[in-house]
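Teaching assistant's notes for section 4

Start the section by putting this record on the projector. Ask students to predict, before seeing the second block, whether Thiamine-phosphate synthase will look compact or extended. Collect guesses on the board.
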Amino acid sequence: MVDWDVYLVTQASLSADRTTDEIVAEAIDGGVGVVQLREKDRTARERYELGLELRELTREAGVTFVVNDRVDIAQALDADGVHLGDDDLPVPVARELLGDDALIGRSVSTVEDAREAAAAGADYLGVGAVFATGSKDDIDDDEYAVGTDRVAAIAEAVDIPFVGIGGITTENATEVVEAGAGGVAVITAITRADDPAAAAEALQHAVERSQ
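Reveal the predicted structure now:
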């Protein structure tokens, strides 16, 4: 059973000079339910080596661990799954490679894309960017602020779980969940926080108030 409430996406360049494994360990202490290894500016080898540490941390804590984009790295790390974007392998191909038990996510920003991803066999969606974000690194270049009305429309259109991502903070997380998201995915709300554990816990409480 996946805990979607608070979903952490890692990015060392947005982590206030702290190591990703330190932030992940603290975020897990604060209640994060899913950790995604992102680190798009690192080589495949570097992502793999960092992933070994994160896989150990998440496995010990019983936290779901997924890899952004790279099906091969997800396989090598025995991750719980992979999260795919528009430029990555199609969902059915990832399913064939990773197997029926793998968790396969898909980034979407429209109702049509959400329906297509669900029909293709995605297990969950990342919907966004919900709000304008302070850093372009937080979202892909082709994403934009879709707002909570789009979140609500996607909630009506698909039956699979999804998390909202993009510009989400403790202050606006409740709006995203009230609109129909199963939880919130964040980078800087945790990675740049003075206390990542406290930030994760605050987000958890905000989500719980909205459910």
